[in-house]
Amino acid sequence: MAKFKLDDIDHQILNMLIENTRIPFTDIAKKLLISAGTVHVRVKKMEDAAIIKGSSLTLDYQKLGYTFIAYVGIYLQNTSQTKFVLQRINEIPHVTVAHITTGKFNIFCKIRAKSTTHAKEIIFKIDDIEGIYRTETMISLEESINDKKRLMHSIFSELQ
What predicted TM-score, i.e. pTM, was given to this entire model? Predict the structure, then answer.
């Protein structure tokens, strides 16, 4: 597949969508002095090229009562069990992120919980998965940086 080339208009459209995924195409068009149809066609092309993959919604987990964040490093008995273990981890909805990693852990997960007691229950569910040798948990005291926008803006600047 050929590399999709983004021009300045594409970058500006993406910048606006990064800031607000719900911004109407008509508002983007007015700001860029182009037609809403042009915005629609360009966004569709970027979706077809898989540069844009859906849109996301950011929740305030604090307001929903999920104030506890922990990271769980998982040691496997055997790396051949990775796929099976990931399938089991995927069945635990409070595990919001899981990475296959190199180094100390085979898998590294992020969990969200309502309390330490709730987190303990989630961690015990993870520990009970067949193929897991042991886990190591780190508690997040504060999520200080969680900003994908800065990286996206940096990537677009490099492409210009």
Answer: 0.78
